[in-house]
Write a structure and sequence with these properties.
With 373 residues, this protein is mainly alpha-helical. Helix content is 41%, strand content 8%. The protein has a 3-stranded antiparallel sheet with strand order 1-7-6, with helices on one face. A two-stranded antiparallel ribbon has the order 2-3. The longest helix is centred in the middle third of the chain and has 21 residues. It is globular, with a radius of gyration of 22 Å.
């Protein structure tokens, strides 16, 4: 698909914990897409979006006219509401079920078979939803697969459902390292430098630990996450957009009464990351977690605080996103005619400039501070 991104996978202690982390990270996917925005140029044009998401979504959308809903369905077909590269359609945990508020399609034959084999309803819906897609890549050596020995048939479909999160079962064989249930966080765009990439990874890793330590709850309706994903891709969304977010992150749902406890508000990224009068802010929650940790080496603590600082300053607008920086470079280029066209010499200068930043040949105070501990 030709676009670089930054993805992080986390192993859980059990399938239930994996479901919980999957659900809790899901509302954060558009937040980190906007924070990491780095793709404002497409096919030689400076565009009115800052991220890759909708571009790739359209490029791999292989739905038929019937599946798109453009013409009436034929026998055995169904409406599919999103591209195979898109945001997640449903939560997996028990609490998350209260917030599944959009239509989704499932392959009923697989769904019923999963239920017959004691797979719980939410996971059966998830798997059968993946299998509404056709396989798009088949390797000759995998035409005959021993499904009781490996998961190649499953992974053929799983790995071509490119969603904002991925729920990953353990491998059946060659699992000497005892790989368990995992979740993959997939929205982040690739950054210019290893420091920025490390900052995003570290921030999400710390969030995973804080979610478990403080029993945090970020659940909001799936429909609001979809809306947030649209907003996250807009030009300069990091500073100009507001996002639906749960301000009462320490309150839990009443599962006995099936009662939702979400206090949903719209906040900008500065408020979500750095806090306001109603919400503590993700960065402050992470600092609370760091200060609880015992025997943390001074250098490690310093580095983690710098990673949090970078995300915090970007949310404030003190540091630019890669997309904003690229726009500024293009607008300031002497050969740019302010017509959205990126000629080859402008493109070359941009790539060379990014190369110099990446390899620390030149400084870039608009995006990165001195991170030496």
């Amino acid at each position: 698909m030709g676009c670089s991104c930054l993805q992080a996978t986390f192993q859980a202690e059990s399938i239930d914990e994996a479901k919980h982390l999957y659900d809790q990270l899901l509302p954060l996917t558009p937040i980190f897409l906007a924070l990491s925005a780095g793709s404002p140029i497409w096919r030689g044009y400076l565009c009115d979006i800052d991220c890759r998401w909708s571009v790739i979504s359209g490029s791999v959308d292989d739905r038929t006219e019937e599946e798109l809903g453009n013409i009436p369905l034929k026998q055995g077909q169904y409406r599919i509401y999103k591209s195979r590269y898109d945001s997640v359609d449903l939560y997996l945990s028990q609490s998350g079920q209260l917030y599944n508020d959009i239509e989704f399609t499932k392959e009923m034959e697989f769904y019923e078979k999963l239920l017959e084999n004691s797979v719980d309803k939410s996971l059966a819906e998830h798997i059968s939803h993946l299998f509404t897609r056709d396989p798009i890549a088949i390797f000759k050596e995998k035409l005959v697969s021993e499904d009781d020995q490996d998961v190649d048939s499953f992974e053929n479909i799983q790995s071509t459902n490119w969603q904002s999160m991925r729920f990953k079962p353990p491998p059946i064989r060659d699992n000497d390292e005892k790989i368990g249930w995992r979740v993959e966080f997939r929205p982040v765009e690739l950054q210019f430098t290893s420091f920025e990439n490390s900052a995003f990874c570290a921030f999400v890793i710390l969030l995973v630990h804080a979610i478990k330590q403080f029993n945090l709850n970020f659940l909001i309706p799936i429909s609001k996450i979809d809306e947030n994903m649209k907003r996250a891709q807009r030009r300069n969304a990091c500073l100009e957009q507001k996002f639906y977010f749960r301000k009462n992150a320490f309150d839990q749902e009443d599962l006995d009464l099936k009662e939702k406890k979400c206090d949903l508000v719209e906040m900008n990224l500065d408020e979500i990351i750095n806090g306001n009068d109603e919400f503590k802010g993700l960065s402050k929650i992470l600092f609370d977690y760091l200060y609880m940790m015992e025997n943390l080496e001074a250098f490690t603590l310093c580095k983690l605080k710098q990673y949090i600082k970078l995300i915090s300053l970007r949310a404030k607008g003190t540091l630019m996103t890669p997309a904003s920086y690229i726009r500024k470079f293009i607008n300031d280029h002497p050969k740019y005619q302010h017509d959205s066209i990126i000629h080859s010499d402008i493109n070359y200068d941009l790539i060379w400039h990014i190369y110099l930043i990446t390899n620390r040949k030149i400084s870039c105070p608009e995006m990165i501070f001195d991170e030496n501990c």
